[in-house]
Amino acid sequence: MSRAKTVDVVLIGGGIMSATLGTLLQRLQPDWTIRVFEKLSDVAQESSNAWNNAGTGHAALCELNYMPEGTDGSVDPAKAVSINEQFQISRQLWSFLVEAGVLNEPNTFINSAPHMTFVQGEANVAYLKRRYEALKDLPLFAGMEYSEDPYTIGEWTPLLIERRKKGEPIAATRIPAGTDVDFGSLTHQLFDAMREAGATVTTEHTVKNIRRAPDNTWNIRVRNDVGHAAQTVNARFVFVGAGGGALSLLQSSGIPEIKGFGGFPISGQFLRCDNPEIVAQHRAKVYGKAAVGAPPMSVPHLDTRVVDGNTSLLFGPYAGFTPKFLKKGSWWDLPGSIRSHNLGPMLAVARDNFDLVKYLIGEVLASRAKKMAALREFMPTARNEDWYLITAGQRVQVMKKDAERGGVLQFGTEVVASADGSIAGLLGASPGASTAAPIMFQILERCFPDKFAGWLPEIQKMVPSFGTELSADSATAARSLATTAATLRVNE
Predict the structure, then answer these.
(1) What is the chain's Cα-based Rg?
(2) pLDDT at position 431
(3) Which Pfam family is one of this chain's hits (predicted)?
(4) What are phi and psi for residue 467, nearest 5 degrees?
């Protein structure tokens, strides 16, 4: 087993997170050496692959799980505003990279797709109206429309209304400024540019473990999955952006910050339609309300998808369970992640989430007929022959210690970093890819505190609003939204 010379940065995993962090570091510290290791034959094959996610460009414009209803019926827009702020940082970064020639024509990775919410039943209609009233005057939600009129909703997207039973209470909101993002294409373009700028991106190489060296650098043991040779790469800084594979690698590093964390894997499927006559009738992403016990990532939605220049429709996701932490992972991933320090929190989560377990069992056992029935709740005219099932990406929800309950299941993302900032990783799922830029800025600030102040002027060139809140000023928010829309050529 050979050992290479020390490099400045090793990025583990070929997804949007590693691609974003590597891109930022190359601009902020161009003299640093960067190596990337991906276990599959190409980058962007797991959660960043276009068909393994919905590409919504999560801005909380339509996702009800970012604005849950309180027990007293109240709605708080704070989390929705926060998610939207984060997505605007990503948009500003992409806009900068388009102008800098790092990214190709915008329509190769981002396209217009109005974001809508659609609900049925009197209680849900009342909730959606309260949500609309709370959001409509906020700067980042400007242009939101609300209607309970079937004719108006049918004008927005006819597939929701055609052959729907008359007299049923329904309501919808719509924001034309929504987008569809091909994170697979975006990830490929970022890695291509990183290679041109000097980074080494190596596929079909599996990182087996990470160990701290006596000088506080990191030894990364890497196996060549083609030639089966092994090597040890030494790095000053390590980022673990390996999706569901991040937990075990961070555990192998021995950092105390990972203690108490576990992972709960959720698999899924989508129904997909490529029939151009049907696709042409639905140009939107339409989200509904999650079933009781369903995880937020399982909120049903009927989406326009633009991948490789071709437009399709996607409906789902249909959640399921497998112990794998990656789509191309191992059946031993879940049991292999159990440690003495996370067993208690994991058991506490199991105790407190019976509704989730019941929901997942029902989803696993659901027939194709039941899946089509769920689609017809959105699209009454859906025909079996126009839709086929595809397997979605694997998601691993974070389980962590909690002082009151012993353990909690967290639906979001969690940055785990060592005290000295020499290693960091990302756990969790939604909103994930859409907020890659702000999450990576968070890592830069936590892991490189001595350099961050010096980097700030360049960061603000890339993201003009960095350090401020767009939501606090209507005029500033409007200018930022208009500028990125013009550069990315969306919503024009």
Answers:
(1) 22
(2) 74
(3) Mqo
(4) 90, -5
